Amino acid sequence: MEQNPNTISERVIRKIEEDNVAPLGKWRFVLKNNTFWVLWGLSVLIGACAIAATIFVFINAGWRYQQITHDSLSQFFFDMIPLFWIVSFGLMVFLGYYNVRHTSRGYRFSFFLVVIASVVASIVGGTILYAIGIGKDIDDFRYPIPFADPITIIEENRWNNAGRGLFSGIVKSFDNNSQSLTLILTSGEEKVFFTGELGDMDIPELLLGAHIRIIGGYDADLTLTVACVVLPWETPGVPYNPRQIHLPRELENERKEDTDRTSTCKDIKPYQKYKEAFSN
Amino acid sequence: MEKEYEGLTDKELVAIVLSNKDAFSAIITRYEAPLRRYIARLGVRDHRDVEDILQNSFIKVYRYLRSFNDTFAFSSWIYRIVHNETYDFFRMKKRRPEVTLDEDSGQQFLNIESHDDQEQIFDKEIDAKILNDALQNLDKKYRDVLLLRFGEDKDYRQISDILQIPEGSVATLIHRGKKALKAALTKK
Predict the structure, then answer these.
(1) Which residues of A189-208 are buried (b: 16+ CB within 10 A; e: fewer)?
(2) Does some domain include residue A166?
(3) ipTM of the complex
């Protein structure tokens, strides 16, 4: 029997034939679905990198000397907090949710479930990445980004602050007789320090090629830069322990007590803070 | 010709359509009436607009047939396409849905008791026009779930698949939607 030409069924079939409509290949849908899962995986991986870098930053933020480098703990905290990585992590969690939501079954998962899964996966991944030692490499990715320096650069800059009495660089030469130390600063500039004010604990750090920090300042005539304390630029993540330093025997009898230091050092604020923090 | 497909499940029918497009008319016949009613309930008043939406939806169903995942119910999948097509129509025409429950479906809607707390929240005496007005002014997210739950008698999983939201959200929206509808009806 002839079908009624006005039925929706006939109109649809006719339209399909006229426009040559054909079912799209399954591969398109499989590809789309898998792409979103891969993108979710990528967002978790990048989130894990952000976590690894954040862990690195928190551990190597310069906690040991924060009383010297900053006026308060809150100032130190705002200075070191890795906003770039925290924002990146948040963005990746959001992207992760967006990607899962666009998979064929993604809508069945609640927002909180997807977010918690992404956060937990990123934290686990980030901890592993940090543990295998690539937290610093990831943090160094910040280098070209304005206002988002890696923590190692931030720490270098804190210790290249002559106005505050903080210096860092590589020991180029040290002459104990003339009490003179030449340091190549991070900026590349050479700076000569008077070392007559240093205590015995400082001397072993002054090895050629050693990367060190100096707390110092200018004398009353502004002609000499006086080194008051020398500290090692310890490997990030490895806590500095002064007890590990063994003085050479010949220096044992030359120990200079703090009371011997002149007012040049005593007037330098970071030196005062250093004494307060490390007096025992 | 469609009689030969009558005993088949939706999934079996889909498999046949992929190798024989003429069998697609069996799917159209099977879903035409409920989908036509659903489009009208979503607020499309003009008969010709309903026809256009239905036709475009079926063409889309055919085009995207291989994206149908047989772990889902086919009816949910086809309802989802029609739902999206209808809201695309509203957006394109810059129109607001005009909810229209006819006398029968309005009564059916009103008579459904709450499945959650066995509390009958709808007054059987309320006429369809008042219900239409209340639904019309209800937030879209509540209106959609209430229409599917009490108008189309879909379960939470099906509503979740049609609206693409988690089942937990469906339950919450139904609960809040019922309260909002009850408040709107009480005001009248």
Answers:
(1) eebebbbbbbbbbbbebbee
(2) yes
(3) 0.79
Domain count, chain A: 2
User: Which domain range does residue A128 map to?
Assistant: 26-151
Decide which of A93, A122, A151 is a domain's last residue: A151
Cα(B69)–Cα(B11) distance, integer angstroms:
10
Asked if B172 is an interface residue toward chain A (Cβ–Cβ < 8 A), one would say no
Which of B22, B28, B164 is facing A8, going by the closest CB pair?
B28
Same domain, A182 and A141: no
Residue A258 lies in a domain: yes
Q: Are residues A54 and A31 in the same domain?
A: yes
Take residue A13 and report the two structure tokens written for it.
């079939």
Pair (A165, A66) in one structural domain: no
Q: How far apart are CA A192 and CA B88, in angstroms?
A: 75
Distance CA A223, CA A256 (A): 23
Buried b vs exposed e over A146-161: b needs ≥16 C-beta within 10 Å? Answer: eebbbbbebbbbbbbe
The partner residue sitting opposite B24, judged by closest CB among A11, A13, A29, is A13
Q: A51 and A105: one domain? A: yes
Range 36-75 of B in CB contact (< 8 A) with A: 51, 54-55, 58-59, 62-67, 69
pLDDT single digits (tens) B118-170 = 445 454 555 667 777 888 888 889 999 999 998 888 999 999 999 999 999 99
DSSP state of B96: -
Please report residues of B whose CB lies closer than 8 A to that of A23: 18, 62-66
Do A30 and A147 belong together in one domain? yes
Gap from A91 CA to chain B (nearest CA, Å): 22
Cβ contacts (< 8 Å) between B160 and chain A: which residues?
107-108
Residues of chain B contacting residue A110, judged by C-beta atoms under 8 Å apart: 166, 168-169
pLDDT higher at A226 or A119: A119
- Regarding whether A167 and A71 lie in a shared domain, the answer is no
Task: Give the residue ranges of chain B where pLDDT is below 70.
Answer: 1-2, 99-128, 188
Give contacts of B66 with chain A, Cβ < 8 Å.
23-26, 29
Q: How confident is the model at residue A124 (pLDDT cuts 50, 70, 90)?
A: very high
Q: CA of A110: which chain B residue's CA is closest?
A: B166
**Close Cβ partners of A164 (under 8 Å, ≥ 6 residues apart):** A69, A269, A270
A108 vs B contacts (CB less than 8 Å):
160, 166-167
Note the pLDDT tens digit of each residue in A4-24: 457 888 889 889 988 888 999
3 state SS of A268: coil
Domain identity same for A111 and A198: no
